[in-house]
Amino acid sequence: MKDMYMHGGYIEGDIGEFLDFSANIAPFGMPAGVREAAEKAIAEAERYPDPFCKELIRALSEKTGLCPDNIAVGNGACDLIYRTVQACFGAGGAVSGSGCITDRKALIAEPAFSEYERALSLYGAVVLHYPLWDGANRLSFEGGGKEILWGSNPDRQGLYELSEMIENDRIGNIGLIFIANPSNPEGRLFERKELVGLAKVCGKKGIILAVDECFMGFVSDNMHHSLLPLIAEEPESFENVLVTDAFTKLYAMPGLRLGYLGGGSAALVKRIDSLRQPWLISTPALKAGLAALELTEEEYRLPLADHINKQRRIMKEALEDLGFEVADGQANYLFFTGAIKNLKERLLEKRILIRDCSDYFGLSKGCYRAAVLSEEKNRRLLEAVSEAVKGY
Questions:
Q1: What radius of gyration, in Å, describes the C-alpha atoms of the chain?
Q2: DSSP class of residue 323?
Q3: In terms of domains, do 352 and 211 share one?
Q4: Residue 22: inside a domain, yes or no?
């Protein structure tokens, strides 16, 4: 069962002994007020938490502009991903009709978080893999016997091309599309107009578009890229769109497990919400989430995004100077490729952990991801990588 959990941030033994660049968590830890709220909530642990998370949903409504009926909360974003798939492809689901889904497919924009495919496979969906690439960064996608969708443009395969293929019925009977913005592991940030165009085409074809925005908070002008403001302003135009976000990364609280989902269709959101277990969110997680939502942009998110942007540029230039190809990402991590196939193992010898991305669909050995942490920690990583390159 161990292979289920081979994501960033996992290593046997005491992780405190390592510099961990494998999990894309905010570099300065949980904000003090958020930590204090979670600690104080332990005093309430002898009582059941609110099963409906009413206070948190009200706070999320105020933060996002979404109607409370258009919001569902979950035990992290992963919980909501699985429930989204269940709502769509489970018996009686939004795209499964009577529960027979043999003629329905789902599509994942790749490379991507592996739990999309795991969730889809759990509910028997046929998965299409759509590699995103352009002439500057075409990766060597190795299908491994899986179904890959290639377009006709030899220079680019992006969201415009995907919209065109759907519009012209070149894909078949798709029920659900997963895409992350920014993408993981590349950190690719899509223009809002690209996603809006895809959402409109999907809406006409009865396709649900699930957008994972878990790293959007690290983008300085995030509200110019997120679909949430558009859904809040005009939900009826985005009834087929679901946006998932989490407190995990931005507020450095992965151990508390808290995420949320917003959608244009209150009915679809209600179905997803109905699939949760009772008392799904612990009181410490609820209180931490409320405290996080009270933080202003100026006191927390914007300074953090500025730090990430500055340090990411420094790290990108340094890695390129060492001979690596580095994706032009906009999130709190860097995706890079190089000739060293065992860089992760070499860095482990120095008690530094990065993410080997060879287990992502379509990627191979020599593909890596590293989080952007503090200036000092980033310097130590770059020094260790430099030593590994010299000794290769």
A1: 21
A2: T
A3: no
A4: no
Whether residue 327 is contained in a domain is answered as: yes
Amino acid at 10: Y
Work out how many domains the chain is built from and give that number. 2
Residue 344 has pLDDT above 90, yes or no: yes
| 101 & 204 share domain | yes
Q: Which of 240, 210, 188 is nearest to 77 (CA)?
A: 210
Rounded CA-CA distance 222/218 in Å is 8
Q: Are 335 and 369 in contact (CB under 8 A)?
A: yes
Tens digits of residue pLDDT in 131-183: 998 755 555 555 566 888 888 876 789 999 999 999 999 988 899 999 999 99
pLDDT band at 97 (very low <50, low <70, confident <90, very high): very low
Residue-wise pLDDT for 79-91, tens only, equals 999 999 999 998 7
Q: Does 326 lie in the same domain as 248?
A: no
**Whether 67 and 180 share a structural domain:** yes
Collapsing DSSP states into helix, strand and coil, what is residue 14? coil
- The sign of the CA dihedral 141, 144, 148, 153 is positive
The larger pLDDT score, comparing residue 229 to residue 103, is at: 229
The CATH number of the domain holding residue 381 is 3.90.1150.10
What was the pLDDT predicted at 172? 84
By the 10 Å C-beta count (0-12 exposed, 13-18 middle, 19+ buried), 145 is classed as exposed
Please choose, from the candidates 7, 80, 57, the residue with its C-alpha nearest in 3D space to the C-alpha of residue 259: 80
Please give the pLDDT value at position 4.
47
Q: Would 275 be classed as within a structural domain?
A: yes
Q: β-strand 19-20 against 352-353: which pairing, if any? A: parallel
> Given 294, 321, 339, which residue is the final one in a domain?
294
The two structure tokens encoding residue 295 = 């933080």
DSSP assignment letter at 354: -
Domain presence at residue 4: no
Helix (H) or strand (E) segment spanning residue 386: helix 375-390
Q: Which amino acid is at 354?
A: I
Average pLDDT of span 274-297: 98
pLDDT interval class at 259 (50, 70, 90): very high
What type of residue sits at position 99?
G
Work out the average pLDDT over 304-325.
Answer: 98
Structural domain of 317: 298-390
The pLDDT, as a whole number, for residue 155 is 77
Q: Are residues 289 and 315 in the same domain?
A: no
Q: Is the pLDDT of residue 13 over 60?
A: no
